[in-house]
Write the structure tokens for this entry.
Amino acid sequence: MEYYSELSFAVMIVVGFATVILFLGGLLFQMKKWGYGSEGYGKPGQGGSIGGFLKLLLSQIFDKKHEQGVLTTLVMDILIQRRILKRSVTRWVMHITIFWGWIMLFVFSMLMFVVELLHKYGGMFGETITEGRPLVESFPAIVLLNEVFGYVLLVGVLIAIARRLFITEVREGTTFYDVFLTGGLFVIVVTGFISEWIRSPGGFMGISNELAPPAALFHVVISLLFCVAMIPFTKYIHIIATPLSILTHGGGE
Amino acid sequence: MARNEPSLTTERFTTSQLLEIDACTRCGECLNWCPVLEEIEEETFTPEGREGMTDKQKMDFSPKNKLTGMREMLNKGYGLRAKLFGPRQIPEDDVLKLKDEIYHCTTCGICGTVCEASINTVEIWESFRRNAVMHKRGPYGKQTGFVDLLASHNVFAADQEDRLCWVPEDIEIKDKAEVAYFTGCTAAFRMQRVGVATTRVLQALDIPFTMLGPEEWCCVSVLIRTGQLELAEEFVNHNIDAMVKKGVKTVIYACAGCHRTSKIDWPKFYEGGELPFETIAISEYMDRLLDDGTLSESDFDWKNPLKKRVTFHDSCHTGRHCGVYDAPRRIYDMVPGADFVEMARTRELQRCCGAGGGIKAGVSDLALKMAQKRVQDAELVNADIITCTCPFCRRNIMDGINAMDTNIIFKDQQEILAEAMGLDLTLPDNPYIAKQM
């Protein structure tokens, strides 16, 4: 069984484009908001200039006064997240698993989507890469890695939920802004596993495998909407704003 | 307020700060460190008009929730909905509530130090405060008095001609020199012993120096910390021009507040941008002279071993804000007989004494409680003396000591140094003797 049926493929394309438009539109809007700020202390605001914001951002990221290079900051403070590790191992495990789980699932999903496109519209090339076999069977490594990083993401999300449920201080400070992010990720990762499990010949827990395509479609649609399209409008914005903040300050412990 | 103007505008915020407000992941690390939140949660201090707060309401004083409050208000004015339908008006009481919460902060900067998103929180609080003053919502409490006091060019409304009235006759102040000692208002008028100790030590070490005297105006720390910037540019440029006229290349400070303000804030107001001289703590200067061989330990000519257990309180301004940690410790290590001991929280994770950010003037009971907490830190390591490089910390910690049943005493770093070197710290007769703290 392929990832997408005829109908779901069409829906996927529409949702995919809508997602990209929403994401880019939202991001531009956010940058415009940031562009209302001034270029420097005491200077007049820039009137929502996206160009002004980007110019300033780049000059700050590559500021020669930073004690470490941009590459070091990128690796140590963004990809490895040592600032979190220094403060709390538990929170680091939570965040690093969510971060890498999310990133890798996004990458693999995009890869599979490209394969789907090639399979459908790639003519000879599409036939060649799948050798006439079902897509899933053609790329077992990607499927396996997809599952592995699904679990990685699940671990992180479960730690996040547990923190918000069982640590009084965290629970009392939780707002809808936080719940939307954690809850959204939880729904996505759970629907991802379910849609994967019911793909097996016998289905899963009484759910027929005939429901696999719509289940996969549901999972993909909410993933795109929650995890990509909504980034600029919700707490997910920190996926963009936090690395930029760290880069502009030159990182470091 | 104009109908279409956002309730909280972006005035005074930089593009980076607006980005940083969105960068907060609400991880909650700042909750573990904020000294103001600690007092509020323990109910040793209750903000005015906030009696009977629930635990959740108390968290509105956390850095995390302050950033969230700002983000929500800014989004109501500049978010997508605001662009489509116009800014959503926020009840003025809500803005004032957030303003009060942001003024309940010593700008100690520990939230920024531990922030996983690397947010420069202090600069954001100060931008918000400036914005609040521009919209006639700030400052807070008695902080409004700073502007009037500074009509006299110092925070004590003293006569500027008395700026050097405390300097002993045998101290030689050069008319022009490469090194200048910027005294600060507190050492000049209320803690003259610190000034005497500093000048005595400099002279004993054969370091020629100049001072601005009546031409030394307040560094404007109190204005910048509380968002009242009207006089800042004039004062900053006056001080810098006066230094340039004296041919100064290095300005040294025995006041952490003046040091921080000169190093970090003055360039923002100086017409020429980068300052035409370097600004360093006196401990940094001595550290450099020891490193380059200009000074050796034998030059200190120790006469009186201290024979006391000493603990060092890193002031927020010299420590977290300017990154100076080792140089002051090197001084204590040299003092004979000093049994130096560190408190549990030191260096970049030090606990603020509560004096800064306008809190001493605006919310003095909070400042006192925080000072007592710091004295307790010193008691836990059985210290006899708490020492520091900040006259403002000194004043607050001494208030804390006086309010407690403790044998600990406070001494400024320069006092310890001067006493160990056997230097005379007698104050010359002057009009401010009775006002010494």
